[in-house]
Amino acid sequence: MAKIEIYHKTWCGFSRAALKLLREKGVAFIDIDVTDDAIREEEMVMRSGRITVPEIFIDGELIGGYDDLAGLDAAGELAAKLGPEDDPWRKAA
């Protein structure tokens, strides 16, 4: 089962787009809002080496931001990373 984590800020359009894409895929994810949380934002920077949002991890692997996530989806590679349709991390549609 894929564990998906997304660090984001509420005001960021790329963050909103990434959250929307994940919801459309019907996957559960760990939502880490760093808008007003300096400690979680520092954690994100330490894990990703980047200061931009969103930062998305699948099974601990840094995927990157929205463009990277959308690129995987466009290439048909995202579904394999997210796991099978019957994966417990998938939400009921």
Describe this structure in words.
The chain has one domain (4-82): Glutaredoxin (3-Layer(aba) Sandwich), CATH 3.40.30. 40% of the residues lie in helices and 18% in strands. The protein has 4 helices and 4 strands. The chain has helices at 13-24, 38-48, 66-74, 78-82; strands spanning 4-8, 30-33, 55-58, 61-64. Helix 1 (13-24) links the parallel strand 1 (4-8) and strand 2. Helix 1 packs parallel to helix 3 (66-74). The two termini are 17 Å apart. 25% of the residues are buried. The mean pLDDT is 92.
What CATH architecture do you see?
Answer: 3-Layer(aba) Sandwich
Number of helices: 4
Q: Fraction of residues in helices?
A: 25-40%
The counted number of beta strands is 4
Q: What is the CA-based Rg, rounded?
A: 13 Å
Tell me the CATH superfamily: Glutaredoxin
**CATH domain fold name:** Glutaredoxin
Q: How many domains make up the coordinates?
A: 1
What distance separates the N and C termini?
Answer: 17 Å
Largest sheet entry = 4 strands, mixed
Q: Class, according to the CATH hierarchy?
A: Alpha Beta
Structural class comes to alpha+beta
Globally, the shape reads globular
Mean pLDDT: 92
Ranges where pLDDT stays below 50 over 5 or more residues in a row are none
Give the helices and strands as they follow along the chain: EHEHEEHH
